[in-house]
Specification:
By secondary structure, the protein is an alpha/beta fold. It has three domains: 2-87 and 178-189, 3-Layer(aba) Sandwich (D-Maltodextrin-Binding Protein, domain 2), CATH 3.40.190.10; 90-177, D-Maltodextrin-Binding Protein, domain 2; 211-276, Alpha-Beta Plaits (2-Layer Sandwich), CATH 3.30.70. The protein contains nine helices and 15 strands. The protein has a six-stranded mixed sheet. A hairpin with a 4-residue loop joins strand 2 and strand 3 (43-48). The longest helix has 18 residues, at 192-209. The two termini are 24 Å apart. 32% of the residues are buried. The model has no long low-confidence stretch (mean pLDDT 96). The chain binds adenosine-5'-triphosphate, 1-O-pyrophosphono-5-O-phosphono-alpha-D-ribofuranose and magnesium ion (MG). The site of adenosine-5'-triphosphate has 15 residues, from helix 1 and helix 3. Adenosine-5'-triphosphate (ATP) is lined by residues 9-12, 50-51, 68, 70-71, 88, 90, 138, 155, 157, 177.
């Protein structure tokens, strides 16, 4: 059985469960369930605190985990990213009251409050900045108002939390994060069960970002049309009963589908349809 760590709470938990469900795995029905065996797929899911997942995976007791890149780096655990999952995207940044800290160099001698002490201590050391770090479990935006720190380092998605706390960002992002699949550093990358799990998740990622496009076009415009819809390997071309016309079927990125439909229409294509993809293996 493949043993997989899944976040049990927080921003990662819901989308991770949805992605696993879309990949055909059973998921827990109640948030209190801590372990779930999916015998048909030969996997066992362990619902763990997101912060602890890299530690479990690095210990080798669990084969795979889903966590945030920031949490992985902060843990310092001997685990590595094997597949980015595209959700829980955020940046990790310094912020302070307007007018108090202009550049990173101004952090010298100040105190930085954060829930990600590992990332911040390393970043400050790498930049040669001598600042103190105070660890808080959450709601760190309030630390400045309450005088615990002059600067915070925290997850920023929309920036709403910073704005509400009257703070502004300082310097470039320390890192860009998103949910990732992790494995123990040095673990055999070719295990068939692990490869199958990763292929299933990749299938979900592709199904989420591509649509299938079908259209009819006169044969003389086929090459120009195919240049717009090259597909992943190469498009399928089928003859139509009506001589001189062909049907084309190709995968296109969802974000580009409308523009491509307009361009195909201008080329003379008709009956241009898109359909969603539920699952795939590339
Ligand atoms: N607002 C957000 N938008 C996107 N990702 C976020 C957001 N807040 C936290 N994350 C990501 O979620 C992961 C942290 O999960 P964790 O469960 O520890 O915190 P949380 O989602 O803030 O939940 P809570 O603070 O309620 O426990 C990190 O990878 C972080 O980048
Ligand atoms: O840029 P935004 O869209 O506002 O999102 C970022 C905020 O979301 C998270 O907070 P959360 O609500 O999880 O509370 P926490 O600080 O207690 O973790 C994070 O810690 C930031 O505070
Ligand atoms: Mg939080």
């Amino acid at each position: 059985m493949l043993r997989i760590a899944v976040p049990n709470k927080g921003s990662l938990s819901g989308p991770a469960g949805e992605m696993l469900h879309e990949a055909g795995y059973q998921q827990r029905k109640a948030t209190k369930e801590l372990v779930l065996v999916d015998p048909e797929n030969e996997v066992e899911f362990f619902y763990l605190r997101p912060r602890d997942i890299a530690i479990y995976v690095s210990s080798g007791r669990l084969d795979i985990g889903i966590t945030g890149r920031d949490l992985l780096l902060d843990s310092g655990a001997r685990a590595e990213e094997v597949l980015p999952l595209g959700f829980a995207r955020s940046t990790f940044r310094y912020a302070a009251k307007p007018g108090t800290v202009d550049t990173l160099d101004d952090l010298a001698g100040l105190t930085v409050a954060t829930s990600y002490e590992g990332i911040v201590a390393k970043h400050l050391a790498d930049k040669g900045i001598d600042a103190s770090v105070v660890h808080l479990d959450g709601a760190v935006e309030t630390a400045i108002e309450l005088g615990v720190a002059q600067v915070i380092a925290d997850v920023v998605e929309t920036g709403t939390s910073l704005r509400n706390a009257g703070l502004e960002i300082v310097g470039e992002p320390i890192l860009q994060s998103e949910a990732v699949v992790i494995r123990r550093t040095g673990a055999d990358p070719n295990g068939p069960k692990v490869q199958q799990f990763l292929r299933r998740l990749q299938g979900v990622l592709v199904a989420r970002s591509y649509v299938m496009m079908d259209y009819d076009i006169r044969a003389e415009h086929l090459e120009a049309a195919v240049a717009l819809t090259p597909g992943l390997e190469s498009p399928t071309i089928s003859p139509l009963h009506d001589q001189g016309w062909v049907a084309v079927r190709s995968m296109v990125r969802t974000t580009e589908a409308q523009r491509i439909m307009d361009d195909l229409y201008d080329l003379g294509a008709r009956a241009i349809l898109t359909t969603g993809i539920h699952a795939c293996r590339l």
